[in-house]
Each structure stands twice: as C-alpha cells, then as structure tokens.
Amino acid sequence: MKAKLLMLLSMSVFGTVGLFVRLIPLSSAEIALWRAVLAAGAIAVYLGVSRQPLRLRGLKGGAVLLLSGALMGFNWVALFEAYRYTTVSVATLTYNVAPLLVMLLSALLLHERMSWFQLLCVLMSMLGLALIVNTTCAGSANPVLGVLLSLLAALLYASVVMLNRMIRDVGGVQRTLLQFIAAIAVLLPYVLLQGGAFTQSLSGIPLLSLLTLGLVHTGLMYCLYFTAIQGLKGREIAIFSFIDPLVAVLGSAIFLHEPFPPRQMVGGAIILLATYLSGRVGIKEERALHATTTSNKEMT
Fold it and tell me: How far apart, in whole angstroms, are the C-alpha atoms of residue 3 and residue 88?
C-alpha cells in the first residue's frame, strides 16, 4: 500500500512537468542538466543532514546504475524537445506508451508472463498513437517530430525502469542521487558541445519554475518514485502511470489553452484504456496463479 501511495503522488506531480518546462526559456539540454544538478544537490544535502552515508564499497550493479542515470538524462532531453514541437497533452499521451514498453521488456528480458489480451492492448496503443498525430494541429511546430521524440523518450524511460528493477542493493534515495550524478556527467559535455554556455540569466517565474522542476519534480518525486517501483510489478506500474497524462491533459487545457480536438481525445483515451486494461488483466492473472499455487501447496 505504501508503494502504491508513493506512486500515486509522484505520477500526479509528474503530470505537471510540461507546464513548468514551457515557462523556462532555456534549451532542452540545459533544462535537463539544471534539473539534475538541482535535484542531486538537494538529495546530497538531505543525506548529509540525516547522516546517511553514500555507501559505494561493495556496490553491485554499479555500471547498470550509472547507465540508467545516463539514459534518464537523455530521456528528459527528448521529452522536453517534444514539448517544443507538439502540445503538452499530445507529447505526454504519446510518452504514456512507456508502461506498455515496460511490460514488453519485462516479458522479453525478465520472462514475466504476457497474455494475448495484453498484446492486444499494445496494438490498441498503436492505434491511439495514430489518432493523436494531427499534422494540422494548431500550436504545434512539427507534430510528427514531436510524437517521434516522445516515443524516443518513452523507450528511454522504459529502459530506465527495467535497469532499476535489476538493482536490489541500493536504497531508493541513494540510487536516485547516483543516477543524477551520472545524468550530469553525460549532459554537461553534451550541453557544452551544443554551444550552451549558461549565459542567460533567469529571474521571476522562469527561475521559480526551474527551481520547482529540479527540487520538487525531480529531487523529491524521483526519490519517491524509485522507492515505489521497488515494491511494484511492471503491470502495477503500468496502471498507476495513466495518472500522469490525465493531469497533463487537464493542465495543458486549463493553463496553456492548448487545442485538443476530438480525434486526439479518442486516441488519448484509447492509449489510457489500453494501459489500464493491460495492467488490470495482468494483476488478475497473477492473483489467480498465486491462489492456484497456494492451493497446490496446501494439498501436498
């Protein structure tokens, strides 16, 4: 129950990321870098105040942990770029196929059972994607490119989740700090190569938005999120992840006044329905399998 509550809170806050990114006049890579720097600093202070040492000696899977951090950094860059080319609602709904990718990767790599119905849900999500791609959508610089960038971000996200599930000997907070350090290590040279010199000063709402994105959306929520997924299965993660796009769609409509025509509404609804149903069916099957196994043990 604790893991589910943490996931509920973190996914609700994640749904507002696009709203804050739109208020920051920096490149996507710079925003991602500052996000990692602010979050890592906040977590380091927390560990120091609470006197929790960062234990690296005897760490197993250190390379996997650092790789997941690097992929996380580029996941942010791809998603923030998607916000620039299409609407926040479309980018977030497209990004929401990530839980289905987690389910596919769990079946392929971790040999978790995947039913034909769940495979049908994946095909449903593809149909939903086809519907939300609207090349004439107002407020979109390049809707197709925005969707492709969102799909790339979704694939990177799924990879991060899968790698995190392979790491068992590091706490959620310490794990998150190490991942942010890895993200900084790959994003800093990338920003410098792209010509980012951090010469643009921020103040007022843009500065407050950047601080909120780094300290709240990232520093705090990622600690809660990665702690939560340690106690959840891939299918349960898929169920809770639909909260993120719902918050994003409502936020973009209310605060950004972005258009969301009926065709895209139908496509988004199909994606959310496919994600939800795939997770629910998976949980029911796991419960039935657990009940059968328990019954067999009692009989023997």
Answer: 28
